[in-house]
Design a protein that fits this description.
204 residues, alpha/beta, Rossmann fold, five-stranded parallel beta sheet, 13% strand
Length: 204
């Protein structure tokens, strides 16, 4: 049995966590979020590739993009997104890390895969991971468009991504929650704006 004091502590923590998450989301610049939706949609319609990357929990979010944008959009719309995670090939990542350097794992893939009008979505709580900075420098040099999702102070990513979506929160869990929520939000917005006439049922 959980005693009343412990139960009250949990309720207090729960309310504080969700309130902090909600208040942080409310402060996000919606102009940039809308720009991100437009760029993603434009890239899909041009039959170009969307690439995603991140580290740790952000890598998990990056990989989740594939499910929602590859399968999810196909379920509700006629859009056929070409999307690939630079985190998905573990054998390649281990080879680059072991034989070259871990900070090159995304850049080397971007050099081989990315072409004109492709875009890269980067997810990083700190915005300062070396491998994120390396691939972002490459994209900027090659004039490839980027969307950055960052937390904390935003770091290098917030300053140098073409479209920077920054949620100022010094909590990894809440920051990752927000980045994941925004991933779903953008996909559902794009789906609702491009519904197949035979697929009128969507969550919102």
């Amino acid at each position: 049995m959980i005693n009343k004091k412990k139960s009250n502590e949990f309720v207090k923590f729960f309310k504080n966590y969700t309130l902090t998450l909600s208040s942080t989301v409310d402060k996000i610049n919606l102009k940039y979020l809308h720009e991100a939706a437009n760029l993603i949609l434009k890239t899909i319609k041009k039959n170009k590739f969307i690439y995603v990357c991140g580290n740790g929990g952000s890598a998990a979010i990056a990989n989740h993009y594939i499910c929602d944008y590859f399968k999810g959009l196909s379920k509700y719309t006629n859009l056929k997104a070409k999307i690939k995670s630079l985190n998905s090939d573990s054998y390649l990542i281990s080879a680059i890390s072991n034989d070259i350097a871990y900070d090159q794992i995304f850049k080397l893939q971007a050099e081989r895969y990315m072409n004109k009008d492709d875009i890269l979505i980067l997810i990083s709580s700190s915005g300062n991971s070396k491998n994120i900075k390396e691939v972002l420098r490459f994209c900027n040099k090659k004039k490839l468009r980027t969307i950055g999702f960052s937390n904390f102070s935003g770091g290098y990513l917030a300053k140098h991504a073409n479209i920077s979506i920054h949620s100022k929160i010094d909590n990894y869990g809440i920051g990752e929650d927000i980045n994941h929520i925004l991933m779903h939000l953008l996909m559902q917005f794009i789906a609702k704006s491009n519904l197949n006439t035979n697929r009128k049922k969507i969550i919102l």
